[in-house]
Amino acid sequence: MVEESSRIAGPGLRADARRNRGRILVAARAVFAEHGIDAPIATVARRAGVGVATLYRRFPTRDALVRAAFAQQMETCARALTEALADPDPWRGFQRLVETACELQREEQGFSAAFVAAFPDSTVEHAQARERAERDLMTLVRRAQAAGALRADFHPSDLAVALLSHCGLVTALPRDSAAPRRLVAYLLQSFRAEAAHGALPPPSALSLRGLPLAADSSQRQRPSRA
Amino acid sequence: MVEESSRIAGPGLRADARRNRGRILVAARAVFAEHGIDAPIATVARRAGVGVATLYRRFPTRDALVRAAFAQQMETCARALTEALADPDPWRGFQRLVETACELQREEQGFSAAFVAAFPDSTVEHAQARERAERDLMTLVRRAQAAGALRADFHPSDLAVALLSHCGLVTALPRDSAAPRRLVAYLLQSFRAEAAHGALPPPSALSLRGLPLAADSSQRQRPSRA
DNA sequence: GTCCAAACGGACGGTGCCGTCCGTTTAAGA
DNA sequence: TCTTAAACGGACGGCACCGTCCGTTTGGAC
Question: Is the residue at B7 inside a domain?
């Protein structure tokens, strides 16, 4: 059995190293929330009371830092999916999953940015975890549709539509804006079966790979420079 | 009467200067679309076949460049608002405004980024143009509600919710994704009066200032560094 | 053709961030 | 206590971008 604290702070590290690792992650979340996901690495190090070299030794790339910093949120997402499936009411399960994921995005400001950044690409690590998550999502959707609660033309990728558009709002607006909640409410209402009036444009071929619901996902360089 | 071409390319400029100004704007749209709104100024200059100094002389700040580059789209937005008001069918007018604005965001990639960047802040220039746009928006919304087509709890700021969330999708996903269209369809359906089922969370106190529908808006530094 | 103000563009100094290198400190086992 | 590998952190070279300066070119008026 692996020791408890090492699961969180990192295994096989010297006591001081483990302590610093923890400080770095706390600082990273704070700095990312305040200055965005692209804040200078040195700022995180300073905030953590640590030299840059120490930070780089533990997290060789920005990517690794971001992923580690938001690992907890990723796990919460994954847990929410499991709980959603366990809900006896199919619609309520679906609804709660959407709401929980969006709430996480709102709570930890940087998480949203990490979310979009991570979005469509993915590495192969933990492939089986992601596959299971994708299967679970499909099940959740199918089940809610079979119950006549979720509209029949809802496509699993519409979950990504909801989460990414919510992300956009969270990123664009100040922390306490009411707008993101409004968006979620509007979307959930139009996802209901009885809201289906006109036909929808065809869904994206896009898969769900990279959604943090799988408790692991990789980062992506978005708007590339020069 | 002002000469025609000078209205587009800039008045009172020497022939070569006017030509370069046009090239710069074309290049800027291309570069912003390809590399994002934060692409190096020098890249735009190179693409335009022009020295950096020339670019800086015409557009002293990145802001000025972005605004000039997307001025046409801004005007199209403003025109769409006027046309929406002119539509005898209140709902169709409303719907078309949303669709037109979103389509513009999709067409010119960089415009979305400019849109969010510009969002809540605004300078006072052309204050009367913006005020008129805000009044028109209110009228459009009220009229659609009075006709029983738009749900009664729709708040004018929900227009910003729609446009900004759509922006998020356009920015996060590759150009040809179907997701943004799906989002618009879902939102428009839930904006219909008959879609109103549960209560919505309270709307934002946020005004519409800065929406490009006013044909002028200023830029904003988003996630601040350091 | 002449002239000059306007326009041009390459070059350059300044700044901020990256990621590594290396001499110093320290945890922890013998 | 002694030893040593692990961890530390400041400093540094490299790089990309910014925005200006200034010597050169050119449009267009006379």
Answer: no
For B182-201, how does the pLDDT look when each residue is reduced to its tens digit (9 = 90+)? 999 999 999 999 988 878 89
B205 touches strand D (CB under 7 A): no
Q: Which two tokens stand for residue B40?
A: 């190096």
Mean pLDDT of A44-59: 98
Residues of chain B neighbouring A187 (CB-CB closer than 8 A): 186-187, 190
Q: Are residues B158 and B109 in the same domain?
A: yes
Among B51, B69, B87, identify where a domain stops: B69
CATH of the domain at A176: 1.10.357.10
Total domains, chain B: 2
Q: Taking each helix axis from N to C terminus, what angle separates B109-118 and B90-107, rounded to the nearest 10 degrees?
A: 110
Of A174, A187, A24, A36, give the one whose Cα is nearest residue A117.
A36
Domain boundaries, position A181: 71-214
B13 pLDDT band, cuts 50/70/90, is very high
Residue of higher predicted confidence among B214 and A28: A28
Q: Provide the sign of the torsion angle of the four alpha carbons B31, A116, B99, B97, taken in this order.
A: negative
In this complex, the nucleotide whose C1' atom is nearest to the CA atom of residue B226 is C16
| Nearest nucleotide over every DNA/RNA strand to the B46 CA, judged by C1' | C9
Residues B116, B164 contacting (CB under 8 angstroms): yes
Kindly determine whether residue B168 and residue A164, on different chains, have CB atoms separated by under 8 Å.
yes
Q: Given this model, what pLDDT does residue A211 score?
A: 55
Backbone angles phi, psi at A81, to 5 degrees: -65, -45
Does some domain include residue A222?
no
Note the strand D nucleotides within 7 A of protein beta carbons: 6-11, 16-22, 26-28
Nearest residue to C17 via alpha carbon and C1': A40
Q: How far is CA B50 from the centre of its chain?
A: 27
